[in-house]
Amino acid sequence: MSSALPPTAPDVVPLTEPSDGVGSVVEDPAAFARVVERFGAGSGPVAADAERASGYRYGQATYLVQVRRAGAGTALLDPVALPDLSPLGEAVGDVEWVLHAASQDLPGLGEHGLRPARVFDTELAARLLGMERVGLAAVVAELLGLGLAKEHSAVDWSTRPLPTDWLRYAALDVEVLVELRDRLAERLEAAGKTEWAAQEFEAVRTAAPPAPRPEPWRRTSGTHTLRDRRQLAVVRSLWQARDTSARARDVSPGRVLPDRAIMAAARALPRTAGQLVALPEFAGKATRRRAAVWQRAVDEALALPAERLPSLRGPRTDGPPQPRTWADRDPVAARRLAAARELVADVSEELAVPVENLLQPDALRRLCWTPPESPDAEEIARFLRERGARPWQIELLAGRLAETFANAS
Protein backbone atom coordinates (compact mmCIF):
# COMPACT_ATOMS: atom_id res chain seq x y z
CA MET A 1 0.00 0.00 0.00
CA SER A 2 1.16 3.51 -0.62
CA SER A 3 0.83 6.53 1.66
CA ALA A 4 3.20 9.33 2.47
CA LEU A 5 3.93 10.28 6.05
CA PRO A 6 3.23 13.95 6.78
CA PRO A 7 6.05 16.07 8.15
CA THR A 8 6.96 14.53 11.48
CA ALA A 9 5.52 16.48 14.39
CA PRO A 10 7.37 16.58 17.70
CA ASP A 11 4.74 14.34 19.33
CA VAL A 12 4.92 11.63 16.62
CA VAL A 13 7.05 8.71 17.75
CA PRO A 14 8.71 6.78 14.91
CA LEU A 15 7.64 3.14 14.75
CA THR A 16 10.79 1.41 13.57
CA GLU A 17 10.69 -2.19 14.78
CA PRO A 18 7.87 -4.75 14.98
CA SER A 19 7.14 -5.84 18.53
CA ASP A 20 7.84 -9.46 17.60
CA GLY A 21 10.89 -8.62 15.51
CA VAL A 22 11.17 -9.42 11.82
CA GLY A 23 10.39 -13.08 11.29
CA SER A 24 11.23 -15.23 8.31
CA VAL A 25 8.90 -15.40 5.35
CA VAL A 26 6.64 -18.45 5.59
CA GLU A 27 7.08 -20.39 2.37
CA ASP A 28 6.73 -24.10 3.13
CA PRO A 29 3.66 -26.14 4.14
CA ALA A 30 4.99 -27.17 7.53
CA ALA A 31 5.71 -23.61 8.62
CA PHE A 32 2.34 -22.50 7.26
CA ALA A 33 0.57 -25.24 9.25
CA ARG A 34 2.13 -23.81 12.41
CA VAL A 35 0.91 -20.32 11.50
CA VAL A 36 -2.60 -21.67 10.92
CA GLU A 37 -2.60 -23.36 14.32
CA ARG A 38 -1.30 -20.22 16.02
CA PHE A 39 -3.86 -17.93 14.40
CA GLY A 40 -6.69 -20.34 15.10
CA ALA A 41 -5.79 -20.16 18.79
CA GLY A 42 -5.45 -16.35 18.76
CA SER A 43 -8.15 -13.87 19.69
CA GLY A 44 -9.82 -10.80 18.21
CA PRO A 45 -9.67 -9.40 14.67
CA VAL A 46 -7.07 -10.29 12.06
CA ALA A 47 -5.01 -7.39 10.73
CA ALA A 48 -4.01 -7.96 7.11
CA ASP A 49 -2.15 -6.35 4.25
CA ALA A 50 -0.87 -7.46 0.87
CA GLU A 51 1.99 -6.31 -1.33
CA ARG A 52 2.03 -6.35 -5.12
CA ALA A 53 4.66 -5.51 -7.72
CA SER A 54 2.77 -2.76 -9.53
CA GLY A 55 4.98 -1.03 -12.04
CA TYR A 56 7.28 -4.07 -12.23
CA ARG A 57 5.14 -7.09 -13.12
CA TYR A 58 2.22 -7.61 -15.46
CA GLY A 59 -1.11 -7.55 -13.64
CA GLN A 60 -1.84 -7.20 -9.95
CA ALA A 61 -0.62 -10.48 -8.47
CA THR A 62 0.05 -10.59 -4.73
CA TYR A 63 3.62 -11.36 -3.69
CA LEU A 64 3.45 -11.04 0.10
CA VAL A 65 0.61 -11.33 2.63
CA GLN A 66 1.02 -9.95 6.14
CA VAL A 67 -1.34 -11.02 8.93
CA ARG A 68 -1.38 -10.30 12.67
CA ARG A 69 -3.64 -11.39 15.50
CA ALA A 70 -3.56 -11.05 19.27
CA GLY A 71 -2.00 -14.16 20.77
CA ALA A 72 -0.57 -15.21 17.40
CA GLY A 73 1.83 -12.41 16.49
CA THR A 74 2.67 -11.46 12.92
CA ALA A 75 3.21 -13.81 9.99
CA LEU A 76 4.63 -12.93 6.60
CA LEU A 77 3.32 -15.36 3.98
CA ASP A 78 4.67 -16.03 0.49
CA PRO A 79 1.61 -16.62 -1.74
CA VAL A 80 3.84 -17.62 -4.65
CA ALA A 81 5.20 -20.61 -2.73
CA LEU A 82 1.88 -21.13 -0.92
CA PRO A 83 -0.87 -20.32 -3.44
CA ASP A 84 -3.65 -21.79 -1.26
CA LEU A 85 -3.95 -19.82 1.97
CA SER A 86 -7.55 -20.89 2.65
CA PRO A 87 -6.62 -22.98 5.74
CA LEU A 88 -5.77 -19.70 7.51
CA GLY A 89 -9.21 -18.29 6.73
CA GLU A 90 -10.86 -21.48 7.94
CA ALA A 91 -8.85 -21.42 11.16
CA VAL A 92 -9.96 -17.91 12.16
CA GLY A 93 -13.57 -18.44 11.09
CA ASP A 94 -15.88 -15.45 10.78
CA VAL A 95 -13.77 -12.95 12.73
CA GLU A 96 -13.36 -9.43 11.43
CA TRP A 97 -10.41 -8.63 9.18
CA VAL A 98 -8.89 -5.17 9.43
CA LEU A 99 -7.37 -3.71 6.26
CA HIS A 100 -6.42 -0.26 5.02
CA ALA A 101 -7.90 0.45 1.57
CA ALA A 102 -9.48 -3.00 1.50
CA SER A 103 -10.62 -2.69 -2.12
CA GLN A 104 -6.96 -2.86 -3.18
CA ASP A 105 -6.12 -6.03 -1.26
CA LEU A 106 -9.30 -8.12 -1.11
CA PRO A 107 -9.19 -9.30 -4.77
CA GLY A 108 -5.62 -10.57 -4.36
CA LEU A 109 -6.37 -12.21 -1.02
CA GLY A 110 -9.41 -13.87 -2.57
CA GLU A 111 -7.26 -15.37 -5.32
CA HIS A 112 -5.40 -17.21 -2.57
CA GLY A 113 -8.48 -18.40 -0.74
CA LEU A 114 -8.71 -15.67 1.90
CA ARG A 115 -12.27 -14.29 1.86
CA PRO A 116 -13.13 -12.53 5.11
CA ALA A 117 -16.66 -12.83 6.47
CA ARG A 118 -16.43 -9.31 7.91
CA VAL A 119 -14.18 -6.35 7.14
CA PHE A 120 -13.19 -3.10 8.83
CA ASP A 121 -11.53 -0.71 6.37
CA THR A 122 -9.46 1.89 8.20
CA GLU A 123 -9.12 4.11 5.12
CA LEU A 124 -12.86 4.15 4.51
CA ALA A 125 -13.45 4.89 8.19
CA ALA A 126 -11.07 7.84 7.99
CA ARG A 127 -12.92 9.13 4.90
CA LEU A 128 -16.31 8.90 6.60
CA LEU A 129 -14.86 10.85 9.53
CA GLY A 130 -13.76 13.63 7.19
CA MET A 131 -10.04 13.27 7.89
CA GLU A 132 -7.98 15.37 5.50
CA ARG A 133 -5.30 12.71 4.93
CA VAL A 134 -6.37 9.08 4.75
CA GLY A 135 -3.16 7.24 3.87
CA LEU A 136 -2.16 4.69 6.48
CA ALA A 137 0.89 6.60 7.72
CA ALA A 138 -1.06 9.84 8.03
CA VAL A 139 -3.97 8.25 9.92
CA VAL A 140 -1.63 6.36 12.27
CA ALA A 141 0.27 9.57 12.97
CA GLU A 142 -2.89 11.57 13.69
CA LEU A 143 -4.73 9.03 15.81
CA LEU A 144 -1.95 7.02 17.45
CA GLY A 145 0.94 9.49 17.43
CA LEU A 146 3.17 6.95 15.71
CA GLY A 147 5.29 7.42 12.60
CA LEU A 148 5.28 4.73 9.91
CA ALA A 149 8.10 4.93 7.38
CA LYS A 150 6.86 4.36 3.80
CA GLU A 151 10.12 4.29 1.85
CA HIS A 152 9.49 0.74 0.58
CA SER A 153 5.89 1.22 -0.55
CA ALA A 154 6.72 1.10 -4.27
CA VAL A 155 9.44 -1.57 -4.41
CA ASP A 156 9.37 -4.76 -6.49
CA TRP A 157 7.75 -7.23 -4.09
CA SER A 158 8.31 -10.09 -6.54
CA THR A 159 12.00 -9.94 -5.58
CA ARG A 160 13.31 -13.11 -3.97
CA PRO A 161 14.66 -13.28 -1.36
CA LEU A 162 12.99 -10.18 0.08
CA PRO A 163 15.43 -7.87 1.90
CA THR A 164 15.08 -7.64 5.67
CA ASP A 165 14.35 -3.90 5.53
CA TRP A 166 11.39 -4.57 3.25
CA LEU A 167 10.08 -7.28 5.56
CA ARG A 168 10.36 -4.92 8.51
CA TYR A 169 8.30 -2.37 6.61
CA ALA A 170 5.73 -5.03 5.72
CA ALA A 171 5.40 -6.24 9.30
CA LEU A 172 4.95 -2.69 10.60
CA ASP A 173 2.02 -2.15 8.22
CA VAL A 174 -0.08 -4.56 10.31
CA GLU A 175 1.54 -3.83 13.68
CA VAL A 176 -1.01 -1.28 14.86
CA LEU A 177 -3.95 -1.85 12.51
CA VAL A 178 -6.21 -3.31 15.19
CA GLU A 179 -5.39 -0.50 17.61
CA LEU A 180 -6.11 1.98 14.81
CA ARG A 181 -9.39 0.19 14.08
CA ASP A 182 -10.47 0.59 17.71
CA ARG A 183 -9.69 4.31 17.74
CA LEU A 184 -11.56 4.87 14.48
CA ALA A 185 -14.53 2.83 15.73
CA GLU A 186 -14.76 5.09 18.79
CA ARG A 187 -14.83 8.17 16.58
CA LEU A 188 -17.40 6.66 14.23
CA GLU A 189 -19.65 5.91 17.19
CA ALA A 190 -19.27 9.42 18.58
CA ALA A 191 -20.12 10.88 15.15
CA GLY A 192 -23.17 8.66 14.68
CA LYS A 193 -21.58 7.02 11.64
CA THR A 194 -21.09 3.44 12.85
CA GLU A 195 -23.92 2.05 10.73
CA TRP A 196 -22.80 4.05 7.69
CA ALA A 197 -19.35 2.53 8.03
CA ALA A 198 -20.73 -0.99 8.42
CA GLN A 199 -22.67 -0.63 5.17
CA GLU A 200 -19.62 0.73 3.35
CA PHE A 201 -17.38 -2.06 4.65
CA GLU A 202 -19.86 -4.71 3.51
CA ALA A 203 -20.15 -3.08 0.09
CA VAL A 204 -16.38 -3.24 -0.31
CA ARG A 205 -16.22 -6.83 0.91
CA THR A 206 -18.88 -8.05 -1.51
CA ALA A 207 -18.02 -5.84 -4.49
CA ALA A 208 -17.92 -7.61 -7.84
CA PRO A 209 -14.75 -7.20 -9.90
CA PRO A 210 -15.01 -4.31 -12.38
CA ALA A 211 -16.05 -5.23 -15.89
CA PRO A 212 -13.21 -5.17 -18.44
CA ARG A 213 -12.95 -1.93 -20.39
CA PRO A 214 -14.13 -2.36 -23.99
CA GLU A 215 -11.14 -0.47 -25.42
CA PRO A 216 -8.43 -0.35 -22.74
CA TRP A 217 -5.88 1.09 -25.15
CA ARG A 218 -7.71 4.43 -24.98
CA ARG A 219 -6.29 4.88 -21.47
CA THR A 220 -2.84 5.46 -22.99
CA SER A 221 -1.74 8.80 -21.58
CA GLY A 222 -2.24 11.56 -24.14
CA THR A 223 -4.70 9.71 -26.40
CA HIS A 224 -7.38 12.33 -25.76
CA THR A 225 -5.24 14.92 -27.58
CA LEU A 226 -5.36 13.06 -30.90
CA ARG A 227 -7.90 14.09 -33.52
CA ASP A 228 -6.89 11.76 -36.34
CA ARG A 229 -8.28 8.22 -36.61
CA ARG A 230 -5.09 6.89 -38.24
CA GLN A 231 -3.06 8.12 -35.29
CA LEU A 232 -5.50 6.44 -32.93
CA ALA A 233 -5.04 3.22 -34.90
CA VAL A 234 -1.29 3.43 -34.27
CA VAL A 235 -1.90 3.89 -30.56
CA ARG A 236 -4.18 0.84 -30.53
CA SER A 237 -1.77 -1.32 -32.51
CA LEU A 238 1.27 -0.40 -30.41
CA TRP A 239 -0.71 -0.83 -27.19
CA GLN A 240 -1.76 -4.32 -28.24
CA ALA A 241 1.79 -5.27 -29.26
CA ARG A 242 3.10 -3.94 -25.96
CA ASP A 243 0.46 -5.78 -23.97
CA THR A 244 1.21 -9.08 -25.69
CA SER A 245 4.92 -8.68 -25.00
CA ALA A 246 4.40 -7.58 -21.39
CA ARG A 247 2.07 -10.46 -20.63
CA ALA A 248 4.48 -13.01 -22.11
CA ARG A 249 7.43 -11.58 -20.16
CA ASP A 250 5.44 -10.85 -16.97
CA VAL A 251 6.66 -7.26 -17.01
CA SER A 252 4.70 -4.08 -16.41
CA PRO A 253 3.64 -2.69 -19.83
CA GLY A 254 5.13 0.71 -19.03
CA ARG A 255 8.54 -0.90 -18.68
CA VAL A 256 8.23 -2.59 -22.06
CA LEU A 257 7.27 0.61 -23.90
CA PRO A 258 6.32 3.89 -22.19
CA ASP A 259 3.10 5.66 -23.10
CA ARG A 260 5.10 8.67 -24.28
CA ALA A 261 6.81 6.48 -26.90
CA ILE A 262 3.46 5.21 -28.18
CA MET A 263 2.20 8.78 -28.46
CA ALA A 264 5.35 9.94 -30.24
CA ALA A 265 4.97 7.21 -32.85
CA ALA A 266 1.28 7.98 -33.28
CA ARG A 267 2.03 11.63 -34.02
CA ALA A 268 5.01 10.94 -36.30
CA LEU A 269 3.56 7.96 -38.24
CA PRO A 270 7.02 6.57 -39.12
CA ARG A 271 7.23 4.49 -42.29
CA THR A 272 10.44 2.62 -41.42
CA ALA A 273 12.19 1.33 -38.33
CA GLY A 274 14.90 3.89 -39.00
CA GLN A 275 12.40 6.71 -38.78
CA LEU A 276 10.96 5.17 -35.63
CA VAL A 277 14.25 4.95 -33.72
CA ALA A 278 15.10 8.49 -34.81
CA LEU A 279 12.37 9.63 -32.40
CA PRO A 280 13.90 10.59 -29.03
CA GLU A 281 11.32 8.42 -27.22
CA PHE A 282 12.69 5.35 -29.00
CA ALA A 283 16.35 6.10 -28.37
CA GLY A 284 16.73 3.70 -25.44
CA LYS A 285 18.78 0.56 -25.99
CA ALA A 286 15.98 -1.87 -25.09
CA THR A 287 13.44 0.01 -27.19
CA ARG A 288 15.76 0.14 -30.21
CA ARG A 289 16.43 -3.60 -29.88
CA ARG A 290 12.72 -4.29 -30.41
CA ALA A 291 12.26 -1.61 -33.08
CA ALA A 292 11.16 -4.16 -35.69
CA VAL A 293 8.31 -5.33 -33.43
CA TRP A 294 7.09 -1.78 -32.84
CA GLN A 295 7.40 -0.77 -36.51
CA ARG A 296 5.44 -3.85 -37.51
CA ALA A 297 2.63 -2.69 -35.23
CA VAL A 298 2.78 0.79 -36.77
CA ASP A 299 2.73 -0.68 -40.29
CA GLU A 300 -0.38 -2.73 -39.48
CA ALA A 301 -2.17 0.41 -38.36
CA LEU A 302 -1.05 2.37 -41.41
CA ALA A 303 -2.36 -0.37 -43.71
CA LEU A 304 -5.85 -0.50 -42.23
CA PRO A 305 -8.73 0.52 -44.53
CA ALA A 306 -10.67 3.58 -43.38
CA GLU A 307 -13.69 1.59 -42.22
CA ARG A 308 -11.55 -0.34 -39.69
CA LEU A 309 -10.02 2.73 -38.06
CA PRO A 310 -11.11 3.44 -34.48
CA SER A 311 -13.64 6.18 -33.92
CA LEU A 312 -12.66 9.49 -32.40
CA ARG A 313 -15.38 9.26 -29.78
CA GLY A 314 -14.64 5.82 -28.42
CA PRO A 315 -17.05 2.94 -27.80
CA ARG A 316 -20.70 3.64 -27.16
CA THR A 317 -21.78 3.26 -23.55
CA ASP A 318 -25.13 3.23 -21.82
CA GLY A 319 -24.10 6.19 -19.71
CA PRO A 320 -24.95 9.86 -20.18
CA PRO A 321 -22.82 12.14 -22.39
CA GLN A 322 -20.11 14.37 -20.99
CA PRO A 323 -21.67 16.97 -18.66
CA ARG A 324 -20.02 19.80 -20.59
CA THR A 325 -22.39 19.04 -23.49
CA TRP A 326 -25.58 18.97 -21.43
CA ALA A 327 -26.39 22.68 -21.65
CA ASP A 328 -26.77 22.37 -25.43
CA ARG A 329 -28.33 18.91 -25.56
CA ASP A 330 -30.72 19.09 -22.60
CA PRO A 331 -30.77 22.37 -20.65
CA VAL A 332 -33.21 20.99 -18.05
CA ALA A 333 -30.88 18.07 -17.30
CA ALA A 334 -27.99 20.51 -17.04
CA ARG A 335 -29.91 22.53 -14.46
CA ARG A 336 -30.76 19.37 -12.54
CA LEU A 337 -27.11 18.32 -12.46
CA ALA A 338 -25.89 21.74 -11.30
CA ALA A 339 -28.49 21.87 -8.54
CA ALA A 340 -27.87 18.26 -7.49
CA ARG A 341 -24.12 18.76 -7.34
CA GLU A 342 -24.62 21.83 -5.18
CA LEU A 343 -26.90 19.86 -2.87
CA VAL A 344 -24.45 16.96 -2.52
CA ALA A 345 -21.60 19.39 -1.87
CA ASP A 346 -23.62 21.08 0.88
CA VAL A 347 -24.48 17.75 2.53
CA SER A 348 -20.85 16.68 2.20
CA GLU A 349 -19.70 19.78 4.06
CA GLU A 350 -22.45 19.45 6.66
CA LEU A 351 -21.58 15.83 7.49
CA ALA A 352 -17.80 15.98 6.86
CA VAL A 353 -18.01 13.15 4.33
CA PRO A 354 -16.25 13.46 0.94
CA VAL A 355 -18.60 13.95 -2.01
CA GLU A 356 -17.43 10.74 -3.69
CA ASN A 357 -18.23 8.74 -0.54
CA LEU A 358 -21.63 10.37 -0.14
CA LEU A 359 -22.83 9.23 -3.55
CA GLN A 360 -21.07 7.79 -6.57
CA PRO A 361 -20.70 10.60 -9.16
CA ASP A 362 -21.74 8.25 -11.98
CA ALA A 363 -25.01 7.41 -10.21
CA LEU A 364 -25.73 11.12 -9.73
CA ARG A 365 -25.04 11.92 -13.41
CA ARG A 366 -27.27 9.06 -14.59
CA LEU A 367 -30.05 10.18 -12.27
CA CYS A 368 -29.89 13.76 -13.54
CA TRP A 369 -29.74 12.78 -17.22
CA THR A 370 -32.53 10.19 -17.17
CA PRO A 371 -34.51 10.63 -13.96
CA PRO A 372 -37.57 8.48 -13.18
CA GLU A 373 -40.81 9.59 -14.84
CA SER A 374 -42.09 10.66 -11.42
CA PRO A 375 -38.92 11.78 -9.63
CA ASP A 376 -40.33 11.69 -6.12
CA ALA A 377 -38.32 10.47 -3.13
CA GLU A 378 -39.49 6.87 -3.49
CA GLU A 379 -38.62 6.61 -7.19
CA ILE A 380 -35.27 8.31 -6.72
CA ALA A 381 -34.51 5.92 -3.86
CA ARG A 382 -35.29 2.97 -6.14
CA PHE A 383 -33.12 4.42 -8.91
CA LEU A 384 -30.15 4.88 -6.58
CA ARG A 385 -30.59 1.49 -4.95
CA GLU A 386 -30.42 -0.23 -8.34
CA ARG A 387 -27.11 1.52 -8.95
CA GLY A 388 -25.46 0.37 -5.76
CA ALA A 389 -26.18 3.24 -3.37
CA ARG A 390 -26.24 2.13 0.25
CA PRO A 391 -29.28 2.61 2.52
CA TRP A 392 -27.62 5.40 4.53
CA GLN A 393 -26.86 7.34 1.35
CA ILE A 394 -30.41 6.91 0.06
CA GLU A 395 -31.91 7.95 3.38
CA LEU A 396 -29.83 11.13 3.39
CA LEU A 397 -30.28 12.15 -0.22
CA ALA A 398 -33.40 10.75 -1.90
CA GLY A 399 -35.84 13.23 -0.38
CA ARG A 400 -33.53 16.19 -0.82
CA LEU A 401 -32.83 15.28 -4.44
CA ALA A 402 -36.55 15.01 -5.15
CA GLU A 403 -37.08 18.51 -3.80
CA THR A 404 -34.08 19.81 -5.74
CA PHE A 405 -35.36 18.28 -8.99
CA ALA A 406 -38.78 19.87 -8.50
CA ASN A 407 -37.19 23.27 -8.09
CA ALA A 408 -34.80 22.83 -11.04
CA SER A 409 -37.42 21.77 -13.58
Automatic annotation (TrEMBL):
It comes from the Bacteria. Pfam families: DNA_pol_A_exo1, DNA_pol_A_exoN, HRDC. Transmembrane segments: none annotated. CDD domains: RNaseD_exo (cd06142). Residues 1-20 are annotated as: Disordered. PROSITE patterns: HRDC (PS50967). InterPro entries: 3'-5'_exonuclease_dom, Exo_C, HRDC-like_sf, HRDC_dom, HRDC_dom_sf, RNase_D-like, RNaseH-like_sf, RNaseH_sf. Residues 228-308 form the HRDC domain. This is Ribonuclease D.
